[in-house]
């Protein structure tokens, strides 16, 4: 292909998946936003877990984020982080029971809310995290690709032993529309597709949920604590007025 044309193709793919999410998932996004707004009104945390590899970026995307809710508590489990070893991360996310350990370590239970974001929606850590949270009385929002989960073979080694898909077991599911394999562009004479979309898709879904939740709260006369960038004027002063409220509650703060 002509140099410069591939980035244009990739741009079109990114915009395409965002448009698809916007046109088909608005109701589900609003339902998830309502669940989060209700937690904030009760001054309760919203836990976010992206089990494995680049899915951890989803938890980081809306945690400690300028313009984002201070009630978000990211579960940044080191064993599933690429920075702690990419191959080990993949083994951890495939390990049956590991998601249970993580959720129970955070004490997630009755009246809590857990958002699980994993574009593929099939691995053991993802399924165990959702099942364990529900077992302990929490509500669960899932962000995953329904298409990828459905089309991935039931005997794939990444799958949970139950063969369940995330979107089948959560209280509210948002379809991030990622295709099987994530990468999207085909080059002539080159076997492997290139250009992954899952980070863009997940980030759009998650930020859409957050901004809609904040809007709901404001419409109801509630001013939720929202992070201001520490790199802008008066950012530290703004954030400091809320820190004592969340120190000791948000583990990664």
Q: Would you list the SSEs in sequence order as H and E? A: HHEHEHHEHEHHEHH
Percent strand: 5-15%
**Which spans of ≥5 residues are poorly predicted at pLDDT below 50?**
none
Binned, the helix content reads 40-55%
For the secondary structure, the number of strands is 5
Distance between the termini: 46 Å
Global Rg? 18 Å
How would you explain this protein's 3D organization?
With 253 residues, the protein is α/β, with parallel strands linked by helices. It is built from ten helices and five strands, in the order H-H-E-H-E-H-H-E-H-E-H-H-E-H-H. It is globular, with a radius of gyration of 18 Å.
Topology:
Blueprint: H1 5-24, H2 26-41, E1 46-49, H3 56-61, E2 72-75, H4 86-93, H5 98-105, E3 113-117, H6 124-135, E4 139-144, H7 146-151, H8 166-169, E5 172-175, H9 198-219, H10 235-246
Parallel strand pairs: 1-2, 1-3, 3-4, 4-5
Essential attributes:
253 residues, alpha/beta, five-stranded parallel beta sheet, 10 helices, 45% helix, globular
Brief overview, please?
This protein is of the alpha/beta class and 253 residues long. The chain is built from ten helices and five strands, in the order H-H-E-H-E-H-H-E-H-E-H-H-E-H-H.
């Amino acid at each position: 292909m002509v140099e410069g044309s591939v980035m244009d193709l990739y741009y079109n793919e990114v915009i395409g998946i965002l448009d698809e999410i916007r046109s088909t998932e608005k109701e589900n996004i609003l339902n998830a936003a309502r669940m989060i707004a209700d937690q904030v009104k009760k001054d309760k945390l919203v836990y976010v877990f992206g089990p494995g590899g680049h899915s951890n970026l989803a938890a980081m995307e809306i945690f400690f984020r300028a313009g984002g809710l201070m009630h978000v508590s990211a579960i940044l489990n080191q064993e599933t982080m690429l920075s702690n070893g990419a191959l080990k991360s993949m083994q951890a996310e495939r390990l049956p029971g590991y998601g249970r350990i993580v959720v129970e370590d955070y004490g997630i239970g009755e009246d809590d809310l857990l958002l699980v974001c994993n574009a593929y929606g099939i691995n053991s850590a993802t399924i165990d995290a959702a099942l364990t949270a529900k077992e302990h009385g929490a509500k669960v929002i899932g962000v995953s690709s329904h298409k990828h989960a459905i089309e991935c073979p039931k005997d794939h080694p990444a799958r949970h032993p139950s063969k369940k898909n995330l979107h089948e077991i959560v209280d509210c599911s948002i379809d991030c529309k990622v295709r099987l394999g994530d990468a999207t562009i085909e080059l002539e004479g080159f076997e492997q597709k290139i250009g992954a979309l899952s980070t863009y898709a997940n980030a759009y879904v998650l930020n859409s949920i957050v901004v809609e939740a904040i809007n709901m709260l404001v419409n109801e006369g509630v001013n939720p604590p929202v992070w201001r960038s520490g790199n802008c004027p008066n950012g530290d002063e703004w954030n400091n007025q809320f820190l004592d409220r969340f120190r000791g509650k948000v583990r990664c703060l």
